[in-house]
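lol ok so funny story. i was supposed to be doing the assay writeup but got distracted and ended up predicting the structure for this chain instead. priorities right. anyway since i did it might as well share w the group, maybe its usefull for someone
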Amino acid sequence: MSIYRMIRHFLREILNEYFLLYLIQGILICTVAMSLIAAAALLISRRLQRKQSASGRCLLWWIIGIGYLIPFKPHPAGAVATVVQYENRGLSPSFFPSEQFVLLFVIWLAGAVICTVRIVSRQEQFSRSITRLRRPADAPVQYLSDLLCSELCITEHIPVYTVPVIQTPMLTGILHPCILLPEQEFDPAELRLILKHELCHYRRGDLFCKLLWIGCRVIHWFNPLMPLLMQQTEQDCELACDEAVMQNETAESANIYCRSILHAAIRRSGLHSDLTVATSFSGSKEMLKARLQAILSGGRKRRFLFITAAAVILTAMTGSILAYAATDTAPAAPDMPEQTGTFVSSAPAPAWEAETYTVPQYEEVFMEHTVPMKSE
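and the output, tada:
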């Protein structure tokens, strides 16, 4: 038995072939609908970049990322898609392209597995290198970090380590977060702003936001818009942390902070990757330019919460698109009493009315067919 036949047998016998078709339809519809919403949000955010706060844009990317991660969404009116089974004895519905579907599902699954293996291997290599080479930071550095945690209302202890192989500060660790610093001397004022920046990443939950988008990348690996959205999300997270760091700071602190960002950009390490669950104090040239402009411009910016509310409504409405698309693809039941299959419908089947037949009286039928008998 070939590998293709084994996979097909597995899909037909062990898994529900029709549910997998529904899964592929859901992912494709989700990636198209959410990409339209994300493209509109990206265009509007870039137009309002000088007026909209980075924290407002980060909230927007949280919502869109959740919309990508969950391909099946309930109907706004409460009607959800239901699966109705009917009998089939060896016949498959004419609307179901079995061969093409198996090939499509195998391609999507292979891409998702390759993307997952790539991400896990990079993260494992990064974590193994950091764990082997890191050393606890000096006591004054850790004490400064604890003071900043109290200032930012962070109750958890965040350890600080120095790592010789990195050239830029970063925050890493989902379960056990820690701050990593390059092995070099920092000015006390510069070190305070660097630690505050990384602690703002922790307080905002930016590691979880990056993990969310990595999951979206695995599911929608075929979507060409996904790398751009991940890059924009990372840039807005850095800008939002810059806004949090610069609150109640002086102009001199802003100059020191900009100088720290420039130094980190010059020394940027290649160990960090967009697919690793870690933040980076520096970034690309476009990100560096945007950060310096935002820090030096100053002034308060608006969140534009109505844009976020519109994204929530549109993301929730993609469930109705999915339900209607699934209903339209399901044909009417064939007029065969011994057929089986699976239909996907968002509404209950119509009730059938019983037909009425007129049956003649038994006595009248009997008398009409009775032959008179001769008397003996």
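The chain has one domain: 3-329. The two ends are 82 Å apart (CA to CA).
back to the writeup now i swear
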